[in-house]
Amino acid sequence: MEHKYKLSSSTWDEKEINAIQKVIDSGFYSMGQYVNEFEEKFSKYIGSKYSVMVNSGSSANLIGIASLFFTKKNNLRRGDEVIVPAVSWSTTYSPLQQYGLKLKFVDIDLNTLNYDLDQLESAISDKTRLIVAVNLLGNPNDFNRINKLIHSRNIILFEDNCESLGAEFKNEKAGTFGKIGTFSSFFSHHISTMEGGLISTDDEEIYNILLSIRAHGWTRNLPNNNLIHKKSSNEFYEQFRFILPGYNVRPLEMSGAIGLEQLIKLPEFIKNRRNNATFFSQKFKNNDIVMIQKEIGKSSWFGFSLIIKDATKYNRDLLIKILNKEGIETRPIVTGNFLKNPVIKYYNYEVHNNVDNSEYLDNNGFFVGNHHYPMKEQIDYLYSVINSIK
C-alpha cells in the first residue's frame, strides 16, 4: 500500500553519502577523529561541557545510569528508589532494572504526556535518590517545578531526551537540566546517524567514567589529567588497563562523520517541525474527536499524538483501521502504559497512587509522524480523514 502520510522519512542526501565515503577512503572505521569532532560540536549546540557518543540512545541510557554507580561521592547503590513516568520507551527502564534499582511509577499528565507534577511531588520520599525525567515526543518537562521539588534534597535528576533533541525550556536546550542527559540519533529521530546516541554532562568525573565504560572499562581513552585514574607513562601498560566494569558501545567512525553533516542541517529540521506543529495545532486544537499534546516551553515535536476524547463514542482500534486503510501510518504513543508489558515481572517496582491517565492513553491514544520538511498537505489529509469519522 502507498502511504500518503508516513511515520518517518530519511534526512540524508549526498552529503551523508560523501561523509561515509570519506571514512571508507581513510580506511579507519572504528571510533576516531570524526566521532571526536561530532561530540565537540554537539556539546556546543546543546550547551553542555561534555558529550560522549555511543551506538544507540538505549546504550546512552545504559552507561549514563551505570556511571552514577561509580562516582567517588554520592553514588547510586542497588536498592535505591528511582521515580519514573509510566509512559516511556523500554530502555528508559531496562538499565534501572539491570542495576538493581527499585522503580516507583508515577502517572503522566494527559495533556503534556510528561509527568503529572502533582503526582510526582507526592511520590518523592526520603528514599528517593533518582528521578528520571523523560521529555516525551519532543516536549520538555517543566524543569522549574521539578528543580523546586528536589531543591536541597539528595536526589539526582537524569534526563532522557532521546525523543526531544532541539527542544528548549526557558531558552536552554533540553538534555542539559539534569546531571546527565541522553539523546538518540536513530533513523526516525531529529537527526539520524542510522544507529547512534549521545550522553551529555557538565560533570567532569562522570564524563571520565563514561569514556571508560563506553569501551570495556579500560583507561585507553581517558585524558592524562582525569579524575578517576592516575595514568602511568607506560603506554604499553595503559593500553589494556581495566578499572571499571564496562561495555563496548562505541559508535563507528561513519556515525560521527554522518552526525557532523546532520548537525549542520538540524536548525532547519527543527524549524520545519515546529512550523508543521503550528499548522497541526491550529487544525486540531478544538477537535471534537481527539485531543493533542500541550506544548511546554518549545517542543521539537518528534511526532503528533492524538488521544480520543470520548472513548464511549469512538473506538481507537476502528479509527486506526480507517487511517491505515487511507494510507496514514500510525503507532502507539511510545510503549503506552509500560506496566502492561510482560517484562514488568522482572522488575522491582511499585506504583504510586494510580496510573489512570497512562492507562487511558494506552487504550485510546496513538501518534502520527512529523517530518523535517513542510507537510501541510499531509496534515490537511489527516484532518479530513479523522473528521469524516462518524
Task: Kindly describe this structure.
This protein is α/β, with parallel strands linked by helices and 390 residues long. The protein has two domains: 14-261, Type I PLP-dependent aspartate aminotransferase-like (Major domain) (Aspartate Aminotransferase, domain 2, 3-Layer(aba) Sandwich), CATH 3.40.640; 266-387, Aspartate Aminotransferase, domain 1 (Alpha-Beta Complex). It is built from twelve helices and 13 strands. The protein has helices at 14-26, 33-46, 57-67, 90-98, 117-123, 143-150, 204-214, 235-238, 253-284, 316-325, 356-364, 376-387, and strands at residues 50-54, 81-85, 102-106, 128-134, 156-160, 168-169, 172-173, 180-184, 197-201, 290-292, 303-308, 349-351, 365-369. Helix 4 (90-98) links the parallel strand 2 (81-85) and strand 3 (102-106). Helix 2 runs parallel beside helix 9 (253-284) and helix 3 (57-67) crosses helix 7 (204-214).
Q: Just give the CATH class of the largest domain.
A: Alpha Beta
Could you give me the name of the CATH homologous superfamily of the largest domain? Type I PLP-dependent aspartate aminotransferase-like (Major domain)
Tell me the span between the first and last alpha carbons.
25 Å
Low-confidence stretches: none
Q: What do we call the CATH topology of the largest domain?
A: Aspartate Aminotransferase, domain 2
Largest sheet: 8 strands, mixed
Strand/helix succession: HHEHEHEHEHEEEEEHHHEEHEHEH
Radius of gyration, CA atoms, in whole angstroms? 21 Å
